[in-house]
Amino acid sequence: QLVESGGGSVQTGGSLTLSCALSGYTSKTYCMGWFRQAPGRGREGVAAIESDGTTSLADSVKGRFTISQDKAKNTVHLQMNSLKPEDTAMYYCATTGKTRQYGLVVLAPDQYNYWGQGTQVTVS
Questions:
Q1: Cα 80 to Cα 17: distance, rounded to the nearest angstrom
Q2: What is the pLDDT of residues 55-107, one digit of tens each?
Q3: Terminal Cα-to-Cα distance of the chain (whole angstroms)
Q4: Could you give the dihedral angle defined by the CA atoms of residues 36, 38, 44 and 49, in that order, rounded to the nearest 10 degrees?
């Protein structure tokens, strides 16, 4: 089970931190990703972190977003700074037992098996 939290409304230039708590998943090899979907658009990869700590960021968020994990709490965080109106979307976290070593395309939504319900981020 994946449960996201931390969404909300913020002004342009503001910051938010999203969190994703994972339960019931015990694989030592995994990748956890953040994805977003704006109205009328497809789901796109934002950031991902693998079990070895390797991170990936979409070009559109590099320099503004940071992904991190707290393995002790099975939680992944997405720190979002310098938010823009185009960051407005429903944000989802997802996980898979694959990593890039095993062919995972880390920012491709169809590569992930388990999804949370999403948390809304609105930037105005």
A1: 6
A2: 999 999 999 999 999 988 899 999 999 999 999 999 999 999 888 888 899 99
A3: 31
A4: -10
